[in-house]
Amino acid sequence: MAKGGKNGATIVIKRIEEGGHGHHGGAWKVAYADFVTAMMAFFLLMWLLNATTEEQRRGLADYFAPTNVMGQGQTGTGQPFGGRTPNESAQMTQNAGAIRLQRGPLPVLEDVEVEEDVPTVARPVPMREGPEGEDEEANPRRTRQARADLPPGDSDPQEQARQARLEAQLQAEGQEAEARALSDAALRAEHERRERAEFEKAAEEIRAAIAMDPALAELAKQMLVEQVPEGLRIQLVDNEGLPMFALGGAAPSDRARQLLARITQVITRLPNRIAIAGHTDATPFRGGGDRSNWDLSAERANVTRRLLTEAGLPEARIRSVTGNAARDPLLPETPNAAANRRVSITLLRDDPPTTPRPPRTPAP
């Protein structure tokens, strides 16, 4: 209160002391260094995975974590011969302890008399009289006659052994023939399955290559790709106003050249042989002279062969180049249609493999 005053105001003095900023620690530097180290280790790991082969990586893994081939688990415990090998996913009892049975050539048994424990009474074999010292090798005729004189139901033991071996060999050959027939059928089925898959993949690649090219996209409807009994057939057909070859001639259009170049890029990767055939419609050839649709179709097929080889197809893969004129129309109901004027490129199916036959064992 002020002196001498009754209603004096209260004066409050407020002082604010501002302190300095605290010292920041270096923990963020440690975290950043750990992050950079981890990224460097990750980069080195990715580089090593890309620079090494599968065998090298498997060797490194086996070095740091050796596999116990005598245990059933990865920890090294288990019974013997129940674990897994380092390079196999199945158990050792399945891949190392299995017994394989493989048919081999029929052994040739020697004519050896086997002594039996049960005593037998030898029957006297009647022999014709002859000079002393005459044996089977010296007189085989007398030996055969002596065998013929055996009582009914008894025969020479050597002859019985030969007959048994012959029957066993014939039975073995019959089983081998049956197994060979089954094996050949399985090989043919697997070969056909793989060939169909390769043809389907090639057809998809050809369609995709044509669809992705703006200059050839509108020609996709003039290209027919299908699997036929002979193989994969690719046909380039004419359309009204868009011919593949000049009318009445064998000169290909620019779009036909580009289309054949695209097709060659795909079929070159397959090993199949190729047959090329040219076709025309039923309209008589107007060129005059001795030329006909036979000549025109053959010339177009030969031009197609030349364009394929120029695009990179090996000449040795071409099996045939034929001209069929109007004998095989695409639209038999309308023989004069433009679609009947076409060129077909067929990737022929390969002959299926067969099981090699082992050499026959001659009968004794």
Automatic annotation (TrEMBL):
PANTHER family: LIPOPROTEIN YIAD-RELATED, STATOR ELEMENT OF FLAGELLAR MOTOR COMPLEX. Residues 158-176 have a biased composition (Low complexity). Residues 232-351 form the OmpA-like domain. CDD domains: OmpA_C-like (cd07185). Residues 177-189 have a biased composition (Basic and acidic residues). Belongs to the MotB family. Signal peptide: none annotated. The chain crosses the membrane at residues 30-49. PROSITE patterns: OMPA_2. It comes from Falsiroseomonas tokyonensis. Keywords: Cell membrane, Cell projection, Cilium, Flagellum, Membrane, Transmembrane, Transmembrane helix. This is Flagellar motor protein MotB. Residues 353-364 have a biased composition (Pro residues).
